[in-house]
Amino acid sequence: MSDQRRSCHACGLSAAVEALYRKGAYTILRCRSCGLVFTDPHPTHEELERIYSESFFQVGEKFAGQSRSPGMLNAERRARWLLEQRGVTAGRWLDVGCATGDFMMAARPHVAQISGIEMSSYAADRARARGLLDVTNGDALDVSLSADPFDVVTMWDVVEHVIDPQAVLQRASTLLRDGGVLALSTGDIESLAARLMGRFWHLMIPPRHLYFFSPSTIARLLDRAGFDTVSVSRPGKCVPLDFAFWKAATLITPRAGPVALRLSAAAHLGRLAPFVNLGDIMTVLARKRPSSAPGMTKVPDVGGQQPDPLAS
Ligand SMILES: [Zn+2]
After folding, report:
1. Where exactly are the structural domains of the chain?
2. Ligand 1 centroid vs 205 CA: distance in angstroms?
């Protein structure tokens, strides 16, 4: 496909883009300037509401609330890992996109205070029903929180879903104290698995995923939001088989989702959750620079791409 121009969330209003894949009604575009990969067009508000209805939070969560659910095992691993990182204090933590509260439950015994923000009222209610009282239902960009800064902000598998990731990272920066830590997870479009699977990569799922980051493109957005990227790791996670089955079915056709859910529930697939590491999901740790500090002079090398003229 020939080059087009689109607005790029890293570069600005009009950037040259190339089409990578076609998925249903969506095209996956890559910005020729900064390398950011994103879904075009963005879904409407109504489509987003349909995507994040109740069923979204039930997949892979059949046994949520039981202490050994896959979601809880992953959340506990993440909390333990985060507590071991240099500069992470067990003070005030905020989980953005907390869903039904697995990570908050895992972190709560170890930190002074744990708060959450969740867009879905269904998921926020589920989290509160687990005794997590400080869950705010709303958009991370405009919910009002106490003025006290947080020590740690987490965003597990969130940033690829939001319309404006730059704005969400900026909000996280505003909510953190200087030197505070942001931990997030998201897919890596430059991983071997993503390259081999191409448009069939299991995270290539527009319009649920609107962005497909790499270590360099996420570092660039983080830099512009006032963060220094400290580390990028690929820890792997337990994947419930009902989730894997639902995902495989919906990669073939989105309409297969409800049937896949019923079949996997009948077969109790959600009880099985092998540990999987395809090396294609990044955990990124970033630290907020002091407000007056300048941006990084160098982001990780993006092979052969032009520097972003609007950065810093
Ligand atoms: Zn760009």
Report:
1. 47-186+218-239+274-288
2. 21
